[in-house]
Design brief:
The protein has one helix and 38 strands. The chain has about 500 residues and is mainly β.
Amino acid sequence: MNRTTLSLIAGTTALAAVTGFAALSAPDAPGTDTAAKAAAQLPVERTSLLCPAPSTSDLAETAYTSFTPVTKGTGSGGKAELQAATEQSADTSADGKDEGKRKDDGKSGKDKPAQPVPAPKEPGKPVTGDSSGGDAPALVGTADGRFAPGWTVQETTEVAAGTGRGLQGVNCTAPDTDFWFPGASTDADRTDYVHLTNPDDSAAVVDIELYGKDGALKSAVGEGITIQPHSSEPVLLSTLSDARQTNLTVHVNVRSGRVGAAVQALDDKLGGDWLAASTDPSGSLVLPGIPKDATSVRLVAFTPGDADADLKVRLASPSGLITPAGHETVHVKGGMTTAVDLGDVTRGEAGSLVLTPTDRSVPVVAALRVVRGKGDKQETAFIPATRPVGTRATSAGNSGKGSTLSLTAPGAAATVKVTASAGSEGGTPVSKTYTIKAGTTQDIEPPAPSGLKGTYALTVEPVSGGPVYGARTLAAGEDGVPAFTVQTLPDDRGTVAVPEADEDLSVLQK
């Protein structure tokens, strides 16, 4: 018997059971699928999700949706549940300082309200919950058994007025050890927090590094931040450095343990939203789902190494790949954040940004700041570079109106199946197939369940062709403000690839 092969299978299966991560890799370049072939895709057996505290505004109204798609090969048991994390009241930085905490942190240490998301009763049907005001806690969640594969939780907050007013949305994320956030800011009009949530029984130690237009910003306060077990800490970026920078890249590096991380970017004039982490540094990136009515689009890019990166900038439009006039390329200096204002680059059509190296490939992270509206009726959202849909992507929290699904195939043409789940309060699932032409972006008004009541989830599954990238936009008009939020659609980590065995292992059952 081949013991090496057996050990690899056992290790991979154990990884799926413990972490819930699918062993799928993103392509090196858009349109090129280099994921290793596997004999089987097995459902994960356990997964974790972390939701940041949604807001401190008394005017905040937050809706949560929890959903697990139906996955073949799962058993009949299991559950998915979210519990309130503790907001830290003790000093957290290595030197005992607490400057990185919320300015209105007087509620720390008080009892938090019960978790607002009920547990789903069956895969394929979402459940919803809501919370009002600024006391909603961060949430720590786990799912196992038939509820683990593809478990997705959407957190969407409406803030009627004040800093960050508008619609703020975020997908609750799996814990990890390394995060890049290009597009943050310590500008006078911005109040940005990086939310750190620790799901484990032991403390996590985190470093937060800031990089501006001239390189790294000096900050001793961001080193060695301790996040206590099962707790969450919002760190105000402007307290980590005296420098005021309009465009920053934030690097969250976990020395020990693991955390969930997301940046809440709040603007005094332009509303606000959550900035999710960019995909891992790569030579080629795709940023999908720019709204067709975007009035301003800003690209923020950063390369972690010493080498400069030269990138070709193209827009995947409904008719094909085009090069924006005056923005054919962008030069990103090593270790420095570069920002480029692209204006109304989509010009009334659906679009996704595709970045590829002009010569040699240098790893880069990137995100877009997108603005809709004009004058004092503007609203902001962020689109980070993302991984492809992969085996399946899941988007929760859709309603009968205000949802747009944006799909792009930057390389070869692709066919995808989009399924609308049952509604949270009733409705029959429905599926529809779409073909995305090579080099194009297609905005889709997603199918809705027949007889829909409540909210529903969408799953996107590639059927054939090249890699597909996606994003979902939620929109809601409030007092003339075109409020919106965008979430990208990477693989939902529902399955893990198990390598093919060299020999028949059935003898182990004897």
